[in-house]
Design goal:
Distance between the termini: 35 Å
Oligomer: single chain
Number of strands: 12
Radius of gyration: 19 Å
Order of helices and strands: EHEHEHHEHEEHEEEHEEHEHH
């Protein structure tokens, strides 16, 4: 039975992945910064990381650790580097030095793209400190022979008690009769958290390595996404105000087109990724409950 160690297990994506893995035929170990998980050792402590990883001896490590607050990362780039890069440096070094053959699955972001999409994996364009820190983490992880890097974005009903997804924010705002501005100048191609979790778990037993885009086909603007989501679960769109990110004063620049070309993933993993409209309809049942 393979032993899976999930880093960042108490985050929004981690909560869903841990739940799904626990239903599979794997031995699961979890790590986070608090005591809600099996382990919470300091990943910046090299000796401790080596000691604990020697003890756990994982066959696969899934890394979900990330500071995803784009504006925070812009205001505090050194902290962004610590959170998104240094947090896994000792783990990466342990894998290389131990010759354990441990597979490292690293979750990255679509924010490494900008300009006219859909983008292939080689067409990166780093436009804020969050993207730069995540790209640096990719370069670090790429030094592991048996590593898989998945650039992605996701939505869906969060299982985390304190963190909500983009789609949660839209649905909750509509139900609370709050007016929100949705951007028609920013495009993306996310997957539902349901599909993303299933795919990540499938990659555990598939020995492909390298960097892959992992998203839906035929992306759309965030404004259209919000409208389609509302219509799917039969909610009013009257409080959805179509606007631009230029209407707000953000610390960080927002990439305008993060749509990804996922043909490489579809080919190498022998799968057909869904269209975004189908993913919106997939999460409908979670919001109708």
């Amino acid at each position: 039975m393979k032993k899976i160690l999930v880093l960042g297990a108490n985050g929004m994506l981690g909560t869903s992945i841990v739940k799904k893995i626990s239903e599979c035929n794997y031995f699961l170990e979890t790590h986070s910064r608090n005591d809600s998980t099996t382990y919470n050792f300091d990943l910046l402590n090299r000796n401790l990381v080596y000691e604990m990883l020697n003890k756990i001896s994982p066959d696969v490590i899934i890394n979900l650790i990330a500071n995803t607050n784009v504006d925070f990362c812009e205001d505090y780039p050194e902290q962004a580097h610590a959170d998104n890069v240094l947090s896994i440096e000792n783990v990466v070094d342990w894998i290389k030095l131990s010759n354990s053959g441990t597979r490292f699955i690293h979750i990255s972001t679509d924010q490494v793209y900008d300009g006219n999409g859909p983008h292939k994996e080689i067409n990166t364009n780093l436009t804020n400190h969050y993207a730069s820190s995540k790209f640096s983490a990719e370069n670090l992880v790429s030094s592991i022979t048996n590593s898989l890097i998945l650039r992605t974005n996701f939505f869906g009903k969060s299982l985390h008690r304190e963190r909500i997804s983009f789609s949660d924010w839209i649905v909750n705002s509509i139900k609370d009769d709050k007016k929100i501005t949705i951007f028609d100048n920013i495009f993306f191609s996310p997957l539902s958290i349901i599909t993303l979790v299933d795919i990540i778990i499938k990659t555990i037993s598939i020995n492909e390595t390298g960097i892959y885009n992992l998203g839906s086909n035929s992306g759309m603007s965030k404004a259209r996404f919000a409208q389609e989501l509302a219509k799917s679960i039969k909610l009013s769109t009257k409080n959805l105000i179509v606007g631009s990110d230029a209407d707000f004063k953000f610390s960080a620049y927002r990439p305008k087109d993060m749509r990804m070309c996922c043909k490489k993933f579809e080919s190498d993993f022998n799968t057909k990724l869904p269209d975004l409209i189908d993913e919106i309809n997939l999460v409908r049942r979670d919001y109708e409950q």
